[in-house]
Specification:
Elements lengths: L1 H7 L36 H17 L11 H13 L12 H9 L40 H10 L3
Helix pairs in contact: 2-3, 3-4
Length: 159
Amino acid sequence: MAMAAAAAAPPYPPAIDWRHFPAHAPLPAGDYVTPVRDQKTCGSCVAFGTLAAFEAAIRIHDKNPAKAVDLSEADLFYCHAEAEHGRHCSGPSGGWWPDAALACCQNPGVVDEPCFPYTPGDQPCKKCTDWKKRLTKIAKWQKITSTTAMKQWLATRGP
């Protein structure tokens, strides 16, 4: 019976909280999740969710839960979703999709928040003058559709 139960055990812990991550080699204990932000009246939630996961991934990769990282939701939404994909804050072309947002995080990348601060409402893409030097990019990403694979990823690699 014990062998059957062990064989059926999932390949991930029953619970994990990256905000209160215990020390577990090779990562130190800490909060790997950046603070919650408010999209206000704009349907830019995909930009906020994508960058929250991206920022946590940077902290986990660098093994530094206190690392200062704040990427620009305005850059991702207004310069990519709106300017390149015709998406807007509301209406029939409101919102966006995570796979398109991740592709933009990979190429061309996203600038930091001070380079293009977020304010709600459709607006033109207006980045700082040295924006090309301030890009952060993801190397690669993959789409996961299995619930078990999602749980394993979240437990072992983070958001």
